Structures are given as structure tokens and as C-alpha cells.
Amino acid sequence: MLRWIWTVVCVAACLFLVTRAHAMAAREEGDAMLKRAFDTMALPELESALRLARAEAATADPDGTGHHHLARALEAMAIYHANRDEQDAAAGLLQQGVAAVTVAIERAPASSPYQTTLGELYGQLAAYSGVVGRIRYGRLATTAYARALELDPRNPTAHVGVGIGKLETPAMFGGSMQDALREFRLARELDADCEEAWIWEGIAQRRQGDTTAARAALQQALRVNPNSDHAKRELARLEEDFR
Known about the structure:
This protein is an all-alpha fold and 243 residues long.
């Protein structure tokens, strides 16, 4: 009897390890696919990432990772549509992303990255809204980023989000170019490979007319990630200023 029980325990342990290894492999595949989707903004990559994220979110997902991946994949697809001036489609996907990451936060309330993604989604929704919606979503984004930094003051992506808020908010409502640049530079100090910090510094420098600094920042973003569609687009916009 004891031998039989021991055999059952061993089999159960092996099955657990195999299942866990499979889940970890699937998660790594999902992470890599999602990064490619954000880098390339190619529709096949985006659709594959979204399909895989939906499947992951449909599992037990106790720590909310699957729902977070789903929110990020929806965000990437929203950016794809926004780049084509399909703002209604983009806004709908962002709303779905908010719903997905809210589930993730409910399952892991202390996750700084989850709060950061919520801030990103709200920030992008603000861009596609009227005056009232812009104020509402802007405040929600600010709250999410503040919570992300409360949970992890060294979260570079959250600092980038705060900087974007400072850059996009009119001065009369608390916006500040210098505060925005300060946040982008702080993000770079925390992570020199934070490509979005370099990209947004380039955007900010372009807006204040310093094309040399803007070009240098965007080129550095491409050195960090040569495949960055966002950096390529912003550099192309900068070069268009001289045509």
C-alpha cells in the first residue's frame, strides 16, 4: 500500500512539474511575441500576440499575468489602429484593455507593472476623447501612475508615464515641459535601455524646437532597440519638419 501511495505521489509531482514547465514556456513565448508585436506593429504579429494572450487569460490565471498580457496585446492592437487614424477602433480596444488589466490588478493588487499598464491605457484613451473625457482619463492615468510608483519608486516605465502626463497637460492645469523632461531622464537613470524614455525625450525636445537634441534622443532609442516602430515613426516625423 505504501509503495502504491508513493508511486501516486511521484506521478502527481511529475505531472505538476511538467504542467508548470509548459506554462512557463508558454508565458515566455507570449512575452517574446508581445514584444515583437510592439516592435514591428505588423498585423500578423499583433493578431498572434492577441490570440495567445486571450488563450492565456482564459486559463486559471491566479496572479493575473494572463489578463495583463491580454491588456498589453489589446493596447498594441489599439496603437496599430490609431496609427491608421481609426480612432473608434483604437478606443474600443483600449477599453477592453482596461477591463482586462483591472482583473489582473484585482488578483495582484501590489503589482506596479499592472498599475503602469492601467495608466498607459487611460492615457491613450485621453488622447482619443473630448475635453471632458481627456480630463477624466488624464486623472485616472495620473492616479494609476502614482500608485505604480508608490508600489515601486524605481519603475522606469511609470516615470515615463508621469512625464507624458506632464507633457500633454496644459500648463494652466499643471503641465510642464521641464517636469516632463525630468521624468524621462529619471527613467533613463533607472534603466538606460528604457527606449520609451528616449523616445519621449525626443518628442519633447522636438516640441520645444531643439531638433538636434530630439534627433540624438530618437537615435539613441534606436540604438537601444533597432526594431522600435515607435522610434522610427517619431524620427520620420522629425525629418519631415525639414522637407
